[in-house]
Predict the 3D structure of the following.
Amino acid sequence: MRHANRFHALLLALSIAPGTSQAQERTLQGTQEAKKQPGLVVERAPRELAAGAVVRDWPSFRGPRRDGVCSEAPLAAKFGAEGPPLVWAMERGQGFASPAVGEGRLVFTHREGDQAHVDSLDPATGRRHWRQSIPCTYSGRYFSNGGPRATPTIADGKVVVQDVGGVLACFDLATGEPLWQLDTVEGMGAREGFFGVVSTPLVVGDAVIQNVGAAGGPTVAAFDLATGEPRWGAGETWGASCASPVLARLAGEDRILVMTGGVSRPPTGGLVIVSPDGELTFEYPFRSRTYESVNGSSPVACGDTVFLTSSYGVGAAAIDVDAKGGGTERWKDRRGLALEFSTPVFVDGLVFAIDGVSGRGGAILAIDPATGEERARRPFSFEQVLGSGEGARRVDAGVGKGSLVHADGHFWILGDTGQLVVVRFDGESFEIVSQAPLFFAQQTWTPPVISGGLLYVCQNNRSRGDGAPARLLCYDVRGASPAKGDR
């Protein structure tokens, strides 16, 4: 296998033996802490699920298929200006990672001091089952938040975590016992990105897939889920981007779609298509000519077509994929949608995305992936009150560079300062169903998560107005059955 000898040599030096007594001691301490757990406030129990409710795990970045589409129903899309009922809130450290929910656990990563914490929580109460920590000395180039960017991935009783500094680690989901870890930067020669390691690892069967971007290769690598041993490596040129790998069914075959592009002069990168057994079948250059640029938006599968978007003068493109994993450019538009890191969703034949500028305005739009034509657009502009009494002041708010999830016939949009907006699309235009300012905090870039009828939102900075610290928030969006009229 390509790069296998190199992988084995590296892992012999890097792998950590599982089940050490120190790890067991840390797990026990975490269990005892859960009884008091400072920083956790439980407001209420969630409502009962409706009869016949459909619930799903959300085990990794953007959901079980990494497409931002949630198949849960019914959900309570209508709520007042106060937002959905708050179930619990947990103070947390730095980071931009989403929580992952699967197999009865919620796993969340964040950083305090020089430790990146991996917390296993009860999804309905926020109570901690265990905590493990990874030493982290990463210092951001462009802003001070040096916490994790990658979402945990839950699979087969395990959870795989990618630290911002380069450590890829796997833990037993039930106990927190460390199973294996390796350092992709120090040990494999992966080039450090502008924002650290951002990509969320993908689990396909019993293999962990990651956009490693090592100097001289591999660009994409696979590791055994149980042991961390190398499986294969593909690609030798392009570095690791801020996007995450996606598994998609294209022209009747499973393909791994990886948007690449790290720190390099001249800047290089683009779409890489790899088979599940490691065969690189297609490369498509798609990267800004600006040195300080990133590919942050993941590829979006639209039938047998892959939709791409990137900022810094790149725009959007569509690639048709054949049964052999090859690709043909359908169209490319440098003036089209150019997202920095938010990823669109594909629903009912159209691509939907949030197009905006940080902290201001923003809009939801629909694009035909076959032609690149914009079909519909709805701008947002809200007035929000910060503080109370004589100190209260009004600010203009919107969704900015927000993110979205499609669930139960609606688009659930989280604006980049904390505006929650629910929108319905009738095929021609958008209608706002509900809107509420959950808080006002900059850099609310983490995509929301819906699982078990609960909505999870990451507040990544201190809130202006009420001064609330960074938190992981859980809201009740469980709907009633249609017969009760609460949908």
